[in-house]
Design the sequence.
């Protein structure tokens, strides 16, 4: 009778361990899916912003009669493969240049096509702020799982690493890893 109890206890312990591992693994997978969804949303808004700034180049040149390179940041980006983090920073720089042209050439404000792009760019800024917050909230939950016990054991086994926040910092900064096994 005692061997039956020992075997049953061992099987119960193994079953509970398997349930815990699969539950923890699934928590990571749900967060990874949400991270990918947030990245896709951010990517969509960044591509929209890129397209708007690209369209504004000809409008700026046409309305200002300038021969200088307009929004040269955008022209340089056309052939480069960038991450969303890098693209966001480059587009932010191009957006500042766009604003300078708007201030420097008041005539642009009377061009309907330019103002439509300006309005759309302002709307995209609100969208990107919302998606950044959503992404960073998910990253916070994910990083908590990676760092906290006992889920950090699952993270170690399946090689889940802490992820960076989408906050405009230099992406070459390293993640501070306060807790190591």
Sequence:
């Amino acid at each position: 009778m005692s061997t039956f109890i020992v075997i049953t206890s061992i099987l119960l312990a193994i079953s509970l361990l398997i349930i815990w591992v699969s539950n923890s693994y699934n928590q990571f997978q749900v967060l990874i899916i949400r991270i990918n969804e947030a990245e896709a949303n951010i990517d969509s808004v960044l591509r929209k912003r890129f397209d708007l700034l690209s369209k504004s180049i000809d409008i700026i040149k046409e309305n200002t009669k300038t021969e200088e390179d307009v929004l040269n940041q955008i022209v340089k980006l056309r052939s480069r493969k960038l991450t969303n983090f890098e693209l966001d920073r480059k587009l932010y720089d191009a957006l500042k240049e766009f604003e300078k042209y708007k201030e420097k050439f008041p005539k642009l404000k009377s061009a309907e096509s330019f103002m439509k792009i300006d309005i759309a760019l302002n709307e995209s800024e609100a969208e990107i702020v919302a998606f950044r917050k959503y992404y960073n909230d998910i990253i916070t939950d994910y990083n908590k799982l990676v760092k906290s016990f006992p889920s950090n054991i699952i993270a170690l086994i399946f090689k889940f690493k802490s992820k960076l926040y989408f906050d405009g910092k230099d992406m070459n900064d390293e993640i501070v890893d306060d807790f190591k096994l």
Summary: Confidence is low (pLDDT under 50) at residues 169-181. Helices lie at 2-64, 72-77, 84-104, 112-147, 151-157. The chain has one domain: 2-25+44-157. Residues 2-25+44-157 form one domain.
